[in-house]
Amino acid sequence: MHTAGEPVRIITSGYPHLRGETILQQRREARENHDALRRALMLEPRGHSGMYGVIPIRPSSSGAAIGALFTHNAGYSTMCGHATIALGRWVIETGVVKPKEPLTTFALELPCGIVNVRVKVRDGKVLSTSFDSVEAYLTHPDFEVETRNGRIKVDIAYGGAFYAILPSSLLGMHFLTTPIPALVHAATEITDSVRKRITFQGWEPDLSFLYGTILTDDASGAEDTYNLCVFGEGQIDRSPTGSGVTARMVRDHARGSIEANVLRRFFGPTGIPFTATIIDDTITSPLGRGIVVRVEGSAFISGTSVFKLDVNDPFAYGFSLPNVFRELVDRPVHHQRS
Q: Is the pTM of this model over 0.90?
């Protein structure tokens, strides 16, 4: 599937049973004992540097219809909005959840928590999917980092995953005219710099890492806006990024730029928008003032595949292109099962 052009490869059979009473325990089991399968399905030759995946799992919460783990080229996400939107269509059209017109609702368990999903259905077909985010927070306003342009301030916000957020103009880069590779390079530099310094006090350890950086234009309020999310280890999100949109909304709300119940459109590098609305801005917790955001978009099915792993194939478990050929001399090709 894809959502706004961002791939969603859903594993429908063949994946091992995951042990663990909680979804985070199952995520650890996948990461520690079955990561070769992530590499096989995300990396070349079956995938590519921008591939994204979903492992449907049994939920540990009795109120959830299904659980899901998210994978990418470097590991496992804690939240993914574009994949959640795709799952909304997938569970309806495969019969995992019985459709009810005009609106089907169900709870989806993710590593970051439970999200409520709303699927618009007409004549048995899914029109669009929205989800209500987990509680979102601006956790580190004006966080200082060192860049090639000197010391600058970024905002760190949580929308199911942590993002560094800043307009590219702070880096002397016009968002709409700067070549995208240059924006990606700058975002990666920000991510690396923040990761060296940041700590997340009071958060679940499995959630406590910076997922990526979002560079934005200078639009404000309810204006249409563009952003580029670079996550994992330099992976470019083709969509506007659902959890990133949530993080942007909490950041802008905390700074007084947007109020509750105001619809805003967010565009990523493919030009297909998500919409977002703050549906609850009354949350107070030990983590601070929080909000819940409803994000909506559409996903499409692009095909089905059957993958095989040949034990004699040196790339049975995937590969990534080297940065320099010296890496091939220092690390020859071999099976990477573990």
A: yes
